[in-house]
Amino acid sequence: MDLVGGCRAFVSVSEAGSFTAGAAVARIPQPVASRRIAALERHFGERLFDRTTRRARLTPFGREVLPSARRLVQLADALDHDAQRARLRPLRLAVPDTCDVRSLAELAAEARAREVHLEFRVAPPGERAELVRTQEVRAALVAVPADESVWSVPLGLAGVARPEARVVHLETLRAGRSGGPRRHVRIQPEDDVPHVRDRLLRVRDAVGLPPAQVAVAASLTAAAAAVFGSADLLLCSAAQAEQLGLHWRPVGEVALARGYGVAAALGEDAERVRGLSAAVARCLGAEA
């Protein structure tokens, strides 16, 4: 039987003093209230109301169990309230700073249509998993090797001048090859992870470039500013290059890609984020 529904009708009728008024308080038809109370009486094996009078007068047994029934109704109402609040509690998601405002807004809108309320926390790759561990966010888009990823973002080199070749070889940046100032490769903080940075630095060393010629910048803004004012190159995705108005080409010596997965304390939160895969991919500039 519906114990909570029966107790709700019982409490309402006892407080209103009649079945009709009590049913109105409980927002149910009077016959439904009567049936629920009758079912409750069968469940307990005792009468709750003396039906020999016009008013709904409690029996001695009814007076004894009324306080417990009232507590059960109050607990049920509190549970409904807490469940509603938990369902609407924002899912705080740590994201890279490469996600632009529009794509994040589109992701949030798509999530809201699925009754998932997202809030975003922008953080560098080294901090996003830690934010999950410390419970400052419920989930994070974390950097992983491309072959272990849910989303993969190919990387290349972008600059102000349109390159003639279809790829950019780091060996062409060696001093004396171009006859002009030494060109640098700027690595933005989002790519300051071993599976991207270390692979590029190994190529740098293999082709004989000095360490400072391929290095991590303090920020994406600083890296882009250096590229805008020189012949330097930015390690980035094709989508980023387009946003910045730069010309992008793959790296000739090595295939580089950002990889992203989901970290979350609760598996259900990770599944909610994965369920928004297409919108997340757009945020990251990832391949479909």
Automatic annotation (TrEMBL):
Keywords: Transcription, Transcription regulation. Gene3D superfamilies: Winged helix-like DNA-binding domain superfamily/Winged helix DNA-binding domain. GO terms for molecular function: DNA-binding transcription factor activity; transcription cis-regulatory region binding. Coiled coil: none annotated. Residues 1-59 form the HTH lysR-type domain. The keyword Transcription regulation applies. InterPro entries: LysR_HTH_N, WH-like_DNA-bd_sf, WH_DNA-bd_sf. Belongs to the LysR transcriptional regulatory family. This is HTH lysR-type domain-containing protein.
